[in-house]
Amino acid sequence: MTPVPTLPLPSPRPDAAPAEPGLLSLVGRTPLARIHTPLPHPHPGFWAKLEGLGAGGMKASAAVSMLTGARRRGELRPGAPVVESTSGTLGLGLAFAGQALGHPVVLVGDTELEPSMRRLLRSHGARLELVDRPAPRGGWQAARLVRLREVLARTEDAYWPDQYNNPDNPAGYRSMAAELVDRLDHLDVLVCSVGTGGHSAGLAGALRRRWPRLRVVGVDSVGSALFGQPARPRLMRGLGSSIRPRNVRPELFDEVHWVGPAEATDACRRLARGSFVSGGWSTGAVALVAAWAARTEPGAVVATVFPDGPHRYLGTVYDDEFCAAHGLTGATPAARPLEIAHPGAAEAVGWTRCRTPRTRPAAGGAA
User: Fold this and answer.
1) Which long-range contacts (CB under 8 A, 24 or more apart) does 3-9 make?
2) Hey, how many other C-beta atoms are within 10 angstroms of the C-beta on 254?
3) Residue 230 gets which letter from DSSP?
4) Phi, psi of 32 (to 5 degrees)
5) What angle do CA 288, 359, 282 make, to 5 degrees?
């Protein structure tokens, strides 16, 4: 297993918070659970890495990797502030990494960020800057990027990790890949949610070196532009993107699925009732696709990553009134996805599969 690096803190800024490097030992080593709950259809089971049970969530690995990499290169001075845009999950990882390494963290979010997540991030010492309206082009991500640049301009020594384009983001998941290799004798199919592109790129490369014939299935959100679909307003947070980041590498994927919020919600709730283990939008989306892969490929070993737990989503995915108001209840997901020949053939409005992901898109900015 690749150890998480620790670095000394020479000559910190006078206003720097004390580092707690011992926290780094808490990253990783999350459980690997066997999931058999019908979602909604019976399947033979798949493996799920439960990142919601790790300190700082799944993206703590990426956050630590990005900050330690910047410190090695001299881009992040000891005790200097870290400024990043986030829809929530990476923000939690950065709050963790900031405490461990002694850096104040400023997070640029938006007013769609759940009140519970705002309170959680602030309780961990992060300062929030919230934008209150999406940009006409690029939505909330573009609006956050504008505010982020304003914060960087007025914050001395600030460092921007640029999660969507930073190669240290996928590098942070090599230890997770090593854990999967340690736990599994074989792996045929890896199902990955796709947002920043970090964990899919980090896992796919490392695991294919161990299992060259591994099939990698990407799971995106309807309304996301990552694989060439038109960008639309999205209810789901943390899955998909309105921009096209460099860390998302379509050539790594053998196929891509777009999943809608009602389908992801249904899977989350079934997991909670049937396995006790569940999470948010990304967890529901990958669980739906992993169960389908296990059902349609008898004998295949299928694994996925549940990026977080359910707590952030008690006011959305697990709230009956929210779900009713957004049309997320009452329909049972289909047994299989619709299929399109290529990402531009039709717009996905529900669970849709494409076996020819588009070649690498043009690089976009960070958000």
Assistant:
1) 3/175, 4/28, 4/61, 4/64, 4/175, 5/64, 5/68, 7/68, 7/71, 7/72, 7/101, 9/78, 9/79, 9/101, 9/102
2) 15
3) P
4) -115, 115
5) 25
The residue type found at 245 is: P
For 19, phi and psi rounded to 5 degrees? -80, 150
Distance from the first to the final alpha carbon of the chain: 31
Residue 79 near residue 103, CB atoms below 8 Å? yes
- Cα separations (Å) of 28 from 2, 184, 245? 10, 16, 25
Between 196 and 254, residue with greater pLDDT:
254
Closest CA to 151 of 133, 119, 128, 169: 128
Distance CA 116, CA 147 (A): 22
Question: Running DSSP on this structure, what letter comes out for residue 339?
Answer: E
With tokens 């297993």, the residue in question is 1
- Measure the CA angle with vertex 185, ends 179 and 191; round to 5°: 65
Strands lying side by side in the sheet with 127-131: 82-85, 105-110, 127-131
Strand locations in 36-154, DSSP E? 46-50, 82-85, 105-110, 127-131
What pTM value is reported for the model?
Answer: 0.91
Q: Which residue has the tokens 């290169």?
A: 73
Length in residues, the chain: 367
Helices (H), 188-309: 198-210, 261-274, 281-296
If you count DSSP H runs as helices and E runs as strands, how many of each does the chain have, helices first? 10, 11
Tokens read off for 208: 């294919």
Could you tell me the CA-to-CA distances from 334 to 87, 218, 338 in Å, in that order? 29, 19, 9
In tens, the pLDDT along 214-273 reads 999 999 999 999 999 999 999 998 899 888 888 898 999 999 999 999 999 999 999 999
Contact 303, 184 (CB under 8 A): yes
Q: Look up residue 61 and give its two tokens.
A: 């690995």
Nearest to 262 by CA among 227, 242, 288: 288
Bridge partners (DSSP) of residue 256 are 218, 354
SS3 per-residue string spanning 126-188: CEEEEECCCECCCHHHHHHHHHHHHHHHHCCCCECCCCCCCCHHHHCCHHHHHHHHHHCCCCC
